[in-house]
Every structure is written in structure tokens, then in C-alpha cells.
Design a protein that fits this description.
The protein has 220 residues and is mainly α. Helix content is 75%, strand content 2%. The chain has 10 helices and 2 strands. It has a two-stranded antiparallel sheet. Helix 1 packs antiparallel against helix 2, helix 2 packs across helix 3 and helix 7 runs antiparallel to helix 9. The N terminus is likely disordered.
Length: 220
């Protein structure tokens, strides 16, 4: 696939170069005709000598052809070099800054490929339409569940106990220590699932330790 793409790119550049030369030739011919005609008319206005008029015309054609050919060659060559430089820059950005290039591509997509009615991510859905079942493509957003219950029975059990039953939380006195201890024991024993409650208490305690310990007296 890569070889085919490179071949197509090379073929495309060759056609582009030929079109540039053709454009340069047409523009040069038009300019040359006007310039030589103006030169011949000017000489004819000064003398009736046909030899002088013919010589001026031939000289104008040769000089104009050489001058315009050189100028157009430089112009076309510069354009070709600029195109090559831009292609190399684009290739470097794709290899070095793919996220930036992806963002540019996403921002440049037309609105109809981003949102169609109430359906979003139209381009993404179309890109994976052949690989995903229709019910998956048509399904709305779904959150990812977090195993809070298991975490606070296993990996985070000691962390929760240290935070919620520690000296700092006890001194703060916002919650009854025996009530929190019972909550943790019930959850650890599997009698009740208090995962979300423990999570809320842990987040509150962490926030208070960082931002609220300056004024955390329990309400009277």
C-alpha cells in the first residue's frame, strides 16, 4: 500500500510539474507576442526600412524568449522547491506532532461530519460502521462503573480506616467515630455495600485536610 501511495505521489508531482511548465509557456507566449508587437510597431514608426523592422522583430523575439524562459524557469523551480519543502514539513509534523495534526484535522472537518441532528461523532461512526454492530453505533454515551465496593473491602480498606478513624478526623468531630467505624465494618463484612458513602467520606476528609483544617469546628 505504501509503495502504491508513493507511486501515486510521484506521478502526481510529475503531472503538476508539466502543468506548471505549460502554464508558464502560455503566459510567456502571450507576454512575448505583446512585447514583440510593441517593439515592431515602435521601430516601424521610426523608419520604413523593412530590414530594420525585421531585425528588430527577430531580436525582440530572441531576447524576449530567453528572458521569459529564464524567468519562468526560476518561477517554476521555486514553486516546485516550495512544494517539496511544504511536503517535507508536513511529513515531519505527522511523525513528530501527530496529536497536533490530528487536532488540526478534527477542527477542519465540516460541521455535518461532527453533528447531524442529535447524533454526534458522525465521522467516527462512519469510519467504524463496517467494523461495529449497528446497535453499538446507535447507542448513546455510557459511563464506566468504578468498583468502589471491592476497593474499600480490599485495596483501599486500610486507607479508608486510617483517614476516617484517624486522630485528625476524630479531633475534627464532624461525624460520630463509632458510626463511621460501624459503616466500615458492615462494608468489610459484606453485610451492606457502602462503597459510595465511604468514597464520599474519604473525598471529604482529603479535601478538609488540604483546604479546610483552618476552620473545621463542628457545628453546635
Amino acid at each position: 500500500m505504501e509503495v502504491t501511495q508513493h507511486g501515486q505521489e510521484a506521478h502526481g508531482h510529475d503531472i503538476s510539474a508539466r502543468l506548471n511548465w505549460l502554464r508558464a509557456g502560455v503566459l510567456g507566449a502571450n507576454d512575448g507576442i505583446v512585447s514583440v508587437a510593441g517593439l515592431v510597431v515602435g521601430v516601424a514608426g521610426a523608419t520604413q526600412d523593412r530590414t530594420a523592422i525585421l531585425t528588430a522583430g527577430v531580436a525582440g523575439v530572441v531576447a524576449g524568449a530567453l528572458s521569459m524562459a529564464g524567468g519562468e524557469f526560476v518561477s517554476v523551480s521555486t514553486q516546485r522547491d516550495t512544494e517539496k519543502a511544504m511536503i517535507e514539513l508536513e511529513r515531519w509534523e505527522l511523525e513528530t506532532l501527530p496529536d497536533h495534526e490530528l487536532a488540526e484535522l478534527a477542527l477542519g472537518l465540516p460541521d455535518e461530519l461532527k453533528l447531524s441532528g442529535k447524533t454526534g461523532k458522525v465521522a467516527l461512526r462512519e469510519a467504524f460502521a463496517a467494523d461495529l454492530p449497528a446497535e453499538i453505533l446507535a447507542r448513546g454515551k455510557a459511563g464506566f462503573g468504578v468498583p468502589l465496593g471491592r476497593w474499600f473491602r480490599e485495596d483501599l480498606r486500610e486507607l479508608a480506616a486510617d483517614l476516617l478513624l484517624g486522630a485528625t478526623a476524630t479531633r475534627r468531630g464532624l461525624f460520630r467515630r463509632e458510626g463511621v467505624a460501624g459503616l466500615l465494618d458492615d462494608h468489610a463484612a459484606g453485610r451492606r455495600d457502602h462503597g459510595e458513602r465511604i468514597w464520599a467520606l474519604v473525598m471529604l476528609e482529603l479535601w478538609l485536610e488540604r483546604y479546610g483544617d483552618g476552620d473545621t469546628s463542628p457545628a453546635s
